[in-house]
Design a protein that fits this description.
Blueprint lengths: L1 H19 L12 H16 L4 E5 L1 H4 L6 H7 L5 E5 L5 H8 L12 E5 L10 H18 L4 E5 L14 E2 L6 H10 L8 E4 L12 E2 L11 H19 L1
Parallel strand pairs: 1-2, 1-3, 3-4, 4-6
Antiparallel strand pairs: 5-7
Length: 241
């Protein structure tokens, strides 16, 4: 009887601990065939090597290949940069790509530019999202200890995305983004992980947002990508030294 009671007391806390673990830190793949095809493309990209700067993220990162192509070719292609962005990805999907998917096997980038978490805002709170991002940073540090991580603040977005308006006010921006970024800033150790908040370059002087920079108040226009490149290029070059 005592032995059974001891076993129950031992197991319950472990089960409770597992249940409390947020979805943001549990690596999972997505079922979309297109997602897996893009992931497999990245695996091959890494096997080919010759990448000094790896951009890791979601659709905002992926679109360096479209709306951001001109800025990419001008600023990052000469630095041997590789794009590892997949539209719709959340922190748990990036974690799977890095762990089970072994997406960076074969490449040892000098710098990893990470911007992820906006797609988690609908299902997770700010702390859970930051915890998911932290798990990615830790995995990068584990796999690539010589790689310097440039951790970007999650970009601003609108809570309502009123796409019919040419401009929205600061009050219409999602407050959760600021809460996430406050947590991300704590990960900067000045040695291996470097946090950078460039969000002001996307906003108007009054703190609002225009369609000229973010047409749907989430994704960037070509001009938005120009601003992104200009904002981080000096830091990327510094970390490459």
């Amino acid at each position: 009887m005592l032995r059974t009671l001891f076993f129950v007391l031992l197991v319950v806390p472990i089960a409770a601990q597992e249940a409390s673990e947020p979805t943001t830190v549990k690596p999972v793949p997505r079922k979309d065939p297109g997602w897996m095809q893009r992931h497999e493309k990245f695996v091959e990209q890494s096997k080919a090597g010759n990448i000094d700067v790896a951009f890791i993220g979601d659709s905002i990162t992926q679109a360096w290949e479209s709306d951001g192509k001109e800025a990419w070719e001008k600023s990052f292609a000469p630095l041997k940069a590789g794009n590892y962005g997949i539209g719709g990805d959340q922190t748990q999907h990036v974690l799977w790509r890095l762990t089970e998917g072994k997406e960076l096997d074969g490449v040892n980038p000098k710098v990893a530019v990470l911007m992820i978490g906006t797609n988690n805002t609908g299902a997770n709170n700010a702390k859970e999202i930051a915890t998911g991002v932290e798990a990615i940073v830790k995995e990068l540090r584990k796999q690539k200890p010589e790689t310097k991580v440039l951790l970007l603040a999650v970009f601003p977005r609108s809570s309502k995305r009123p796409i019919e308006e040419a401009k929205i006010s600061a009050s219409q921006l999602m407050p959760k983004i600021g809460q996430i970024n406050s947590n991300l800033a704590k990960m900067d150790d000045g040695k291996h992980v470097f946090y950078m908040d460039i969000n002001k370059v996307f906003l108007e002087e009054d703190g609002g947002m225009s369609k000229e920079i973010m047409p749907d108040y989430l994704h960037l226009s070509p001009k938005g990508y120009e601003r992104w490149a200009e904002a981080i290029l000096p830091k990327v070059r510094e970390l490459l030294k």
